[in-house]
Amino acid sequence: MAELSSGRQPALTGSLQLPPRVVAMGGGHGLYASLTALRHLTRDLTAVVTVADNGGSSGRLRDDYDTIPPGDLRMALAALCDDTEKGQAWRELLQHRFPRSRRHGDGEVGPEKLVGELEGHAMGNLMILTAWSRLGGPVEGLAALGRLIGARGRVLPMCSRPLGIEATVRGADPADPHRRDVVVGQKEVARSAGYVEQVRLSPQDASAEPQAVQEVMAADWVVLGPGSWYTSVMPHLLVPDLRDAIVATPARRVLTMNIDSTGENQGRSPAEQLAAVLENAPGFVPNVVLVDHHQVADPEDRSALEALVRESDGDLHVADLVSRTRPGVHDVMRLATAYQDVLHLG
Description:
The chain has 13 helices and 11 strands. The protein has helices spanning 28-38, 56-65, 71-80, 85-95, 123-135, 138-149, 186-191, 210-218, 229-233, 240-248, 270-280, 299-311, 332-345; strands spanning 3-6, 22-26, 45-49, 154-157, 164-170, 180-184, 195-202, 221-224, 252-256, 288-292, 315-319.
């Protein structure tokens, strides 16, 4: 097993002779970070996005229109906007969320306020729903929006139907730490106070979006994570035909670990986090595991992770990935540097 480390800042322009074909998987803020980093390295970039969100604006639109939730897809589109003035304007528009509404007098509305059903919705979610309605479906609508905003890549849903998530959770009740409960719903699993032991999708035999499978099979690299471990990262490995594609693809597979052990990974060491993925998705083997050096500062944690990666005949890549100004958040350019180094390994 080769162990690599990187602490330098990226020199990205012209760093890759041939742009690699990369598929990035996940959802939410984790996928946003990886896409923002990867778009500096290649234009042949596809996001394959989870569709199990049942909270907030996405959950409301999912229920009201019987559609896949658009929020994680919106964030992926926003991440693929470039850093030009136009790209930044589109990013801000997609991410704009309508404020709390307030009525004034006899139904009059203040200039900065909105009334009614728009409250809490993200503008990009409504744009996506409109595109789907007018252009024939999720794939066509997302492609059209991508062209409109000049996205540096493509966005695809993991499945073309909404999915449910349920998990077996231990110790959710502090008074009975050994009791196991079944928690249903992405939002509910993410907020569970217990220790997630296993996660499942509903339906368990859901079919992947065919174009997502095709992109995985044609890729040079498949990047999974970072993100909410059980509700954004693992779901891609629980859709049977998508998991089969991830296992069978000639592409090299990168698993990007989170930069802390909070949320769904509360109390788990990096090795335990990796073990959870391998246990929940038999057959999946990462070729490269990317981890922030703070997560393996403890020699025992580092040794345990090294041993587990070695069992998979993979490479461990240790890098400095944390933002100096926003602790707990990835520094996008440091993450880009790490991916640049990883892609050169291939």
